[in-house]
Give the backbone structure.
Amino acid sequence: MKTLIYLVSGVIFGVGLSLSGMIDPVKVKDFLSVGTPDWNPALLFVLGSAVLVYLMAFFYLRRRRKTLSGSPFKHPAPRPVDRKLVLGSIVFGTGWGIAGICPGPALVNVAFLDLNIAVFILTMFTGFEIQRRFS
Amino acid sequence: MEMSAMSYQNEIFGGLLIGVASAIPLLYEGRIAGVSGYAASAMRPSSSDGRTGLLLVLGLMIGGLLWRLTGAEGSIQATSQGLGTWALAGLLVGWGSRMGGGCTSGHGVCGLGRLSPRSLVSVLIFMGIAVVTNLLLRGVA
């Protein structure tokens, strides 16, 4: 069951990212071109509707206090904003701004067999590993 | 502005699917994670989180394949970035998302979707920085 849950979640995620335009770096860069004639706010609608669905699921769980598999739902205690969060967000935002591609869309784009994306994914995983070893 | 809701239907419907996909592991077992979290854990497939992370990554690729089978064309070729640029961007995306504990889906969807102040701070920073970076590169290009 668990296998199916995560596989299906990934497939729906991949189709959603594709349909929404998030896998298109040109569209992402137009979204990031605030203040220029190219600016296209369309991707705000992607974030908005995704957050809305997640909010509903979250409030439902919080009231139910149990997950669908029966375990108690524990909401992680809020943590303070720290240096790692700020620095990490700056580094991530720089990479996203350069390429117009973030982790989900990179993996979805594997289906299009492109060398650029293969290199991006390779260095992205290297980045994961660097952070794991040196934190 | 009357056209907005209709002309953004792909974005809205795609976003709903992303929300549903993100909410499935949350509803099923309370797991709160975004793609960078799943992908990073997929590097250790012997652990339970690693196995599910690998499955999610596999699912993303299958989703892309299904999308391609509908006749969609790849969009990466339309960019003018060289290989070195892609390599640098990938490194920053991977390193930064794990240092900050989340990416567009982790902080963006799951974080904002559970009203986490940390995630709001992260989203505002990485969106702002991405806008500035993109504008600077546009200026150079």
